[in-house]
Amino acid sequence: MTARQQWLGVLGAVGVLALALFAATHFLGDELFPVSVGSQAPPIVAATLDQPKQERTLTDYKGKVVLLNIWATWCEPCRVEMPSIEKLHREFGPQGLVVLGVSVDDPGAEDAIRDFVKEYGLTFTILHDPKQQTKTNYQVTGFPETFVIGREGTIRKKVIGAADWNSEANRALIRELLGIPEAPAAAVPLGDTARTIPLKAR
Question: What sign for the dihedral angle of Cα 134, 137, 140, 146?
């Protein structure tokens, strides 16, 4: 075999490998690179509801703890969990938590989204992604779907479906990611002994 034939063989093998890699990435992307806990958070593509609209990306919140909720006005489970997300935002927003609600409602649904926001008294940031690019980027399989993203941009929690985001477990996670210490315990005399109870329980 000549040197030319050897090089042609190598180039052919490289071409076949590249084609196989492209096919695997294109057709099996979700399986090969799933968006899950521990993976880097994909980009979001959405805009504000105000006029003129302003594009928002995840890099706008770099270094922040982010709760990303992907939802729609027609989604009943979304309605179930929204009050608990609002409570979480009101408590931890002033301490650095960024809550982003990305609506995947159809184009032209801005008024419906505004009505939804008003109905539930939502004060966190609501964005609109009518092309559902965020849904695709995050491989969303149902609504709502929520991702808690750490300061370093890593997904720390993923929940499919409605959840109680004001639960103690979720609050503890947010406190941990924000670096908020637990409330100190207080010693309470009990006869000749003492027991400790959390201050918040007093």
Answer: negative
Q: Is the Cα dihedral 100, 101, 104, 109 positive or negative?
A: negative
Task: Give tens-digit pLDDT for 4-23.
Answer: 666 656 555 555 454 544 44
Buried b (16+ CB within 10 A) or exposed e, 112-139: ebeebbeeeebebbbbbbeebbbbebbe
Q: What are the structure tokens assigned to 61, written together?
A: 């919140």
pLDDT value at residue 182: 78
Mean pLDDT of 39-50: 95
Half-sphere exposure of 172 (CA within 13 A, CB side): 3
Give the separation between CA 129 and CA 132, rounded to whole angstroms.
Answer: 5
Question: Which of the four pLDDT bands, split at 50, 70 and 90, describes residue 183?
Answer: low
DSSP state of 94: G
CB atoms within 10 A of CB 165: 25
Give me the helices (H) in the chain, please: 3-27, 29-32, 76-92, 110-120, 133-137, 168-178
130 strand-pairing partners: none
Residue 1's alpha-carbon distances to 8, 11, 15, 16, 127, in angstroms, are: 11, 15, 20, 21, 62
pLDDT, mean over the chain: 84
